[in-house]
Amino acid sequence: MKRIYQILALVSLVAAGCILSGTFVAEVEFVDVNTNFTNGMIKEIVKLSDYTDHAEDIQRIERLDLEAIVVNAQATACSLDVYVSADSTFTSKAQVEASTNKYPVLLNYVTKPGPGSTDTLTILEAQTLLQLTGSNWDSIKSLLETGLFTVYVTSTATPVSGQITRAIIIITFTAKP
Amino acid sequence: MIKRCIVFGCVLLLSLTGAAEAKMLGFGLSAFYGVNIPLVQDDAESGPIYGLRAPLQMTGSLRLEPWFSMATIGDYDLVTPISGTTTFEGGDITSFGLNALLGSPFNGPGFSIAFLGGIGSHKMERENADTDTRVGYNLGVDMGIGLGSLPLSLSARGEGLVIPLDGGGSRKSALVTGALTYKFGK
């Protein structure tokens, strides 16, 4: 009988260490939208604590999704890429692409030809283009867990004429409540 | 991983040592079915759980119970401003483990009640995520009733399950199941 109590005590102790946690979803909506691409990119600095009460207690990133509405103001289609980085100082597409301190989230989203066409990138469409595998995903998770990162959207077209009118990143994470 | 194996091994060793010292009074086979209810998980909904247990009555109050189960994490809907409602596939959890129960014997006549603690291995498979196998811990209560002279009993069980994850978080669920148990021998 004493052994059973010892087992139950052991189980309780191990479980208690992680019992106060939950899985939550944060929707991070870009603030700096409706601006034209500057030097081939759009930048958004994200401070997660602005979007969730649990930013200080993130224990694990579960998944990452995104959705957006893009207006292409030029006659030809263009391809958009999305990166995240701990560095918020890049001021051009060239700097983003040259940096080793960035991780691709989504690559090769091709818009419709314009001018004035509107593309809606849904969560399900974005999933087919996400690059969230292997060490790249591990690096992105580590970056997101810090609660402060910068999102860069770059375009293959040069010069870029168009806007992101709305963009949302959805982060699912485990944290202490 | 090594730490988890050590904990799992210790619990198993203690249980088997107890089993060896105790006199086994009976054994049976249970089929159970119920619902797996995720707790504090925005990315999961309830789903069915079913499986088998093999209760071994060691003494008048101690029961050991190896078990195997398969559970479904229910699909969940995410409502967002641009995409509207997106349904994500929940996933599956395949588990096995060992429970220790203290209380009335499962194979006696009339009403029985027992409190349980257990440990198990849980293999979690989800869409767009790596398969994750973790050690989990469960606590609960089991209430049953014998079916007269037949070697059968019905029982209902409520359990809390905690599966710790890397980084300190955990997946928690409430398990509510009903079981039909067949008692072998006398």
3D architecture notes:
The complex is a heterodimer of chains A (177) and B (186). Chain A is 21% helix and 41% strand. Chain A has one domain (20-175): Jelly Rolls, CATH 2.60.120. A four-stranded antiparallel sheet of chain A has the order 1-8-3-6. A four-stranded antiparallel sheet of chain A has the order 2-7-4-5, covered by helices on one side. Chain A contains four helices and eight strands, in the order αββββαββααββ. Chain A is α+β, with helices and mostly antiparallel strands and 177 residues long. Chain B has 186 residues and is mostly beta strands. Chain B has one helix at 2-21; strands at residues 26-39, 47-53, 56-57, 62-73, 76-80, 84-88, 91-103, 111-125, 132-146, 152-164, 170-184. In chain B, strands 1, 2, 3, 4, 7, 8, 9, 10 and 11 form a nine-stranded antiparallel sheet that branches. In chain B, strands 5-6 form a two-stranded antiparallel sheet. In chain B, a hairpin with a 7-residue loop joins strand 1 (26-39) and strand 2 (47-53). Chain B starts with a helix and ends with a strand.
Topology readout:
The complex is a heterodimer of chains A (177) and B (186).
Chain A: H1 2-16, E1 22-29, E2 41-47, E3 58-72, E4 79-85, H2 93-98, E5 103-110, E6 117-121, H3 123-127, H4 134-145, E7 148-155, E8 162-175
Antiparallel strand pairs in A: 1-8, 2-7, 3-6, 3-8, 4-5, 4-7
Chain B: H1 2-21, E1 26-39, E2 47-53, E3 56-57, E4 62-73, E5 76-80, E6 84-88, E7 91-103, E8 111-125, E9 132-146, E10 152-164, E11 170-184
Antiparallel strand pairs in B: 1-2, 1-3, 1-11, 2-4, 3-4, 4-7, 5-6, 7-8, 8-9, 9-10, 10-11
